[in-house]
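ok so for the tutorial part 2 we go from a plain amino acid sequence to predicted structure tokens. step 1 is just haveing the sequence, like this:
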Amino acid sequence: MKLICLGDSITRGQVSADYVALLRTRLPDDTVINAGVNYEPSSELVKRLDAVIAQDPDVVTVLIGTNDANATLSGKRARALRRRWKLAADPTAADYAANLATVARRLQDQTMARVALISLPVIGEDLASVPVRRAAEYSDIVRRVAAREGVTYLPLNERMTAYLEERGRTPGTAYRAEGLLAQTAAMQHFLLGRSLDTISKRRGLQLTTDTIHLNGRGAAMIADLVEGFVTRSIAPH
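step 2 — the prediction. this is what the tokens look like for a chain of 237 residues:
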């Protein structure tokens, strides 16, 4: 069985805990391919679908949208994303829905793969905040696209939100739009050798290291959902 995990930096697993590596450990008899690209918006993922389709996967999971949603929270973040990918305009929710539908449709039309769309991880951990609500709004887009296109929906955002609600803790670090938290987390990880879980704990966070990228607990939630989907996909019918 060949599983391809499509996504952005949260899938790439360099500055976020690597859920794809967890899946390789849990699915030792299968081929698990990491197709994550750092800082990628949904419009760019659409452009590289030919390479994914050419690999003839049996299962594809799609976790994309954090950069699209994040760009709506800050003009600076939107401009940076535009510059990086030479986008003609700022990403919008409507664009995101259209891109995600294109991904789901092409994977179904041009492969025999079973396809799952994963809702967004939380953005920030303050449940009353605009970033958390924005991630939930974009996750609702994922849910609606999955239903319309007839693919599986994996409720990561709901699982993470429930986890934070159950514990009721005030996060020690608030979301910051300028991206400094991600930069300093990367410096601590790569230059000082601190684990992502240590960085997360020091910042008083439960699922993320910098309010965007995930610690081990957050990554394990994705791995749990994907493993369950894969197991159902390859079960005898």
